[in-house]
Amino acid sequence: MKYFHVVCVLGFLLMAADSFAVPSPGPMIVSGTNDPLVNGTYKYNGDYDGKPSWVKGNYFLRWGTTSAMTIEWSIGNSSSGQDFYRNANYIGFPSEVQWTCLSWALDPCTPPVVTADPLPEKLFVSGTVDAFLNGEYVRGLNSNNGYPRYAMGNYDIHVESAWTNPWVIEKTDPITPYYTTPSYGASVPEAGWSADAYASGGPDYVPPVVTAYPLPQKLYVSGTVDEFLNGEYVRGLNGNGCPLYSRGDFVISRLEWTAMIMGEPWSLEDTSTGNIYYDSYDESGIKVPEKGWFQGPYGGLPISPPVMSAARLPDKYKVRGAGSTEVNGVYTRTLNSVDGLVYEKEGTYYLEAGYYYLMAYGYGINKSAFGTYYSVESDSLNVPSGGWILGSKGTANPPYVTPYFPWPMFMPSFTGGGN
């Protein structure tokens, strides 16, 4: 028995040591050069001269002595012994930008960008008063200073100089700069843009937002007890450097964009009175948060913060196939809870958002003061059809959940089989 205890202790120590092991670096992506053989995903290949290294076939990304007889990061070909690009950054990981060309680089040289995650192939400029700047910009070769470049016809997003100048949105012929923002790496900032020489509007200029995805042109507010707030909101010009949506005097906007830190809340307010009904401190990006809103000073009771979706949400869901047959049936949308969407059946059973198994966010099928029959993990505003698991009160056979659309009264009834 004592040997069994020794084995258990050793096993525990090995598991504990493994839990504190430092994970290996992930792959690195080299992109934007005019040499298609250099571009691509490089896999981690262990350490080289005390720093991580990566390979793609015969091509390498590593720290060491280059053909220029300097010790620095380089990208080259191990079979030919040629180094193409160098970077004098001396920290433990290769820089994203400011690579320079060595003599073996394909001419005319276009320095790479090196990132852990792929850069977007498109950017969407939107919401600025200079409407001709709004639209879809496509990534091409990097600028000759080693930063990404995106273009829409004669308009460009790029960094003017690798060392001193910020990102700029400008017309390239003739050169006409409209907006700028500081550069801190290879990713184009979403917000924080300032007017340059040719921005419109004088002191009331409206800077753009720049996203890797198109922002919705409409938002649907739903589920709050303040019914006058529910409905369709339309996107207009940006406000405070962030997207803004309005429905008459009711506006969804961010109070302020503060440099690199989004420190001010989103709000849903009546601009004619200044009354704030709901606000959100979501810091995940420039997109209006779908959920997680809090009651403001003028929000009504019972507390039912809105959800904001780019499309109308289903009014009803049908639950079928559950082993606990009493939960099967049609659930109708009612007021939101503080956690999000709620659908109810007979005032007793609820299909609702919340925190369930292992405190994961998702949906549960519950009974008042009884407990959870089934739950599913999901961050979507659309209730998942499958993937449901047993809760503390459910029995075998989790349900299948689908949007429910009543059969039109003018159509003949459907008498086929099925549930």
Characteristic key phrases:
419 residues; eight-stranded antiparallel β-sheet; 1 helix; 32 strands; flat; disordered C terminus
Give a brief outline of the structure.
The chain has one helix at 2-19; strands at residues 28-31, 40-48, 51-56, 59-65, 71-77, 82-87, 100-101, 113-115, 122-126, 135-139, 150-152, 155-159, 167-172, 175-181, 194-195, 209-211, 218-222, 231-235, 245-247, 250-254, 266-270, 275-280, 294-295, 307-309, 316-320, 329-333, 342-345, 349-355, 361-367, 371-377, 389-390, 400-403. By secondary structure, the protein is mainly beta.
Q: Give the helix/strand class.
A: mainly beta
Radius of gyration: 28 Å
The best one-word shape is flat
Report the mean per-residue pLDDT as an integer: 88
The rounded distance between the terminal residues' Cα atoms is 57 Å
- Proportion of strand residues: 35-45%
Helix content: under 10%
Low-confidence stretches: 1-20, 413-419
Number-wise, the strands total 32
Q: Compute the number of structural domains.
A: 4
What's the number of helices? Answer: 1
Describe the main β-sheet briefly.
8 strands, antiparallel
Write the topology of this structure.
Blueprint: H1 2-19, E1 28-31, E2 40-48, E3 51-56, E4 59-65, E5 71-77, E6 82-87, E7 100-101, E8 113-115, E9 122-126, E10 135-139, E11 150-152, E12 155-159, E13 167-172, E14 175-181, E15 194-195, E16 209-211, E17 218-222, E18 231-235, E19 245-247, E20 250-254, E21 266-270, E22 275-280, E23 294-295, E24 307-309, E25 316-320, E26 329-333, E27 342-345, E28 349-355, E29 361-367, E30 371-377, E31 389-390, E32 400-403
Antiparallel strand pairs: 1-2, 1-8, 2-3, 3-4, 4-5, 5-6, 6-7, 9-10, 9-16, 10-11, 11-12, 12-13, 13-14, 14-15, 17-18, 17-24, 18-19, 19-20, 20-21, 21-22, 22-23, 25-26, 25-32, 26-27, 27-28, 28-29, 29-30, 30-31
